[in-house]
Amino acid sequence: MNNLSKHGKLNKFDLLKTMIIVIGTSIMGSLIPVITTGHFPEKEQISLIIGTAVGAGFTYLLKQVRTDSNGTIY
Known about the structure:
mainly alpha; 0% strand
């Protein structure tokens, strides 16, 4: 089974991988303040973490749209 989408298109696997990136980035971003300060992130830090996670997911989707079914980026 080929999980790669065609050039200019996205499939369900791309969306699943994007969700993994967004959730993983959020978790890692939330752990940094906990490890360094011992406290959970504050409101401003949470909005920065969410923005970074959404940006990472959006960047991944852009990369997938520009990649063909052979894995070549155009």
